[in-house]
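Dear Dr. H.,

I hope your travels went smoothly. While you were away I took the liberty of generating a structure for the chain from your last submission, since the lab meeting agenda had it listed for discussion. I wanted you to have the full record in hand beforehand rather than looking at slides cold. The sequence, exactly as received, is reproduced here:
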Amino acid sequence: LKLEQCIFCGFCERFACPHFAKASPQTIILPVLLKNPNYELRARCEVLRINLDSTGKKATGVTYVDDAGQEFEQPAEMVFITAFPLNNVRTLLLSGIGKPYDPRTGEGVVGRNYSYQTTGGPTVFMDEGININPFMSSGAPGTMIDDFGGDNFDHSNLGFIGGQYVGSIMTGGRPIEFHPTPPGTPAWGLEWKKAVARHYNHTILIQQHGTSQPSRLNYLDLDPTYKDAWGQPLLRMTFDFPENDIRMSQYIADKVVEIGRAMGGKIVVRGGTKRPYVTTVYQSTHNAGGAVMGDDPKTSVVNRYQQCWDVPNVFSLGASSFPQNITYNYTVTIGALTLWALDAIKSQYLKAPGPMVHT
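The corresponding predicted structure, in token form, is as follows:
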């Protein structure tokens, strides 16, 4: 497959590229897979649960429903859960694979170590002579610095661990979504319109993306009240930013405000992470944890090969395996971990099905 060149259309954010200049699994991987006679894609279907044998130690397949609501059972010798961290955890819980995490006792593993991504960043309003041209941006242009990422700076007496990368990425100033105005601007009316016209082409967004440390009180479980269309419990998320991450984000926010002023910003609006966590404003989709990997079945769901400790022919792959978010977006890391697991499956598991790590 050949990707086209970017034409800087300004619509390069969280959706597919109409010019075929941006890679995604839907555009690059699936077309290749569909040419393989051994691969079948069943669209508009939802797996309800993984089925286990009488011992509860071996998966026999999955039960799923199609778009007409008809239920099917698909036998399988191996089952791979690749449904994003949240649905990975929900599938495990609905299937009875692994002990659910209990925050009161600290025991259990499925749903444990849920983490997110601590974000923020100021809005920098520039002079009218500085043109940003957000209407012709793309996903690639941008500048990142790692001075405040991870352990790259002195944490002495700061009262927190971790850090954030700092960057300015303009993926497109869409006319409805992007209308920055400085503090004091009316929320509507003529003065608001004037402010949008004044600042649209002269405003820079600086982003902070960073560490999300696990907490005993942050976890995933099955909701005791709400159910889906099939009568199964929805996933419940219990989460708020730990004090460590608030301190980290606020400290770096001060540093990024200094950067904005050094760039020539006339007005710099600070943007560090605050409590409580809300889902009404988009922050990040880099969710992690809930079915983490490790060396001990008492504290992890999968081993280093993403193989479930309790049901060895089930593999859970994705960011659900990570015990915390350590600053950076981990798409490439997930891909590398998947290739690592598949190599072990081909070279070890298929020759001798069973646990690949023994404790």
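Two observations you may find useful: The two ends are 44 Å apart (CA to CA). The longest helix spans residues 243-262.

With kind regards,
E. W.
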